[in-house]
Amino acid sequence: MKIATYNVNGINGRLPVFLRWLAETQPDVVCIQELKAPQEKFPEQAILDAGYQAIWQGQKSWNGVAILARGYEIKELRRGLPGDDEDLHSRYIEALINDVVIGCLYLPNGNPTPGPKLDYKMAWMARLTDHAAKLLEYDLPVVLAGDFNVIPTENDVYKPERWVNDALFRPEVRDAFKKLVDQGWTDALRKLYPTETIYTFWDYFRNAYGRDAGLRIDHFLLSPKLEGRLLNAGVDKNVRGWEKSSDHAPVWIEVK
Asked: What's the whole-number mean pLDDT along residues 52-63?
């Protein structure tokens, strides 16, 4: 089974790019983030025509997450991260597909720092860590996939010294991510490529993609029941270079 994650940076504005990528790569399951569309504006028919069923949680102008599947039933398990009934951001959706629990997430950016946006990010990460601990108790394989907005190490960013005060790279953010992973999760790309330079995001400014001045912020975390089934993983970097593409590239894993 091939599972992909892709921050599309606006599903409707990037729909031709997204559909082209789907047609060329044909993943079985896709987690997408930053729909930037209200619930009723999700392009369900275009997704169906491409061969995929979908569940989604939209939000006007911002956020929004979805899970797509081709040839598998999607059983929705949860929408919204538990732990704060007042948090109305559309950032988490969870489903059971082919006996695998898949959590699709769009973790808060947290900038500018310090301030309330970083506080919200840290609280969200604490809630995610609490929920992830419960997921590890399931008698099923689990994957957490999406845009984590976390640069885990200096090896995951071009010129790390420029990011020391950014909410994606601040020590407390990286410590929170490490605390999550240390519950027993496996960073899929780093398991297969422990030292290679791998980026999943390139800013639109200063020719970042052309210079390969990127970040690795889109991740797959695998539970112990899934870690041993990991066959392959990669980044469809070329998609970032397509016209009117997202500033993220699709990331994927293959599991047996």
From this structure: 97
Residue 44, annotated ligand binder? no
For the question of residue 218 being annotated catalytic, the response is no
Residue 108: per-residue pLDDT: 98
Known active-site residue 138: no
- Whole-prediction pTM value? 0.98
Are 70 and 27 contacting, i.e. CB atoms less than 8 angstroms apart?
Answer: yes
Residue 113 backbone class (left: φ over 0; alpha: ψ -120 to 50; beta: rest) = beta
Residue 232 in marked binding region: no
Residue range 129-151, pLDDT digits in tens: 999 999 999 999 999 999 999 99
The pLDDT value recorded for residue 97 is 98
Please give the domain boundaries of the chain with CATH numbers for all domains.
2-255 (3.60.10.10)
How does pLDDT run across 192-218, given as a tens digit for each residue? 999 999 999 999 999 999 999 999 999
Beta strands in 9-161 (DSSP E): 29-33, 53-57, 65-69, 75-79, 92-97, 100-106, 142-147
CA quadruple 143, 147, 148, 154: dihedral, nearest 10: 110
pLDDT of residue 184: 98
Amino acid at 203: D
Active site residue 248: yes
Q: Is 34 annotated as a binding residue?
A: yes
Q: Which of 6, 92, 147, 156 is catalytic?
A: 147
Query: 98 a known binding residue?
Result: no
> Among 102, 99, 120, which Cα is nearest to 111's?
120
CA distance 146 to 69: 15
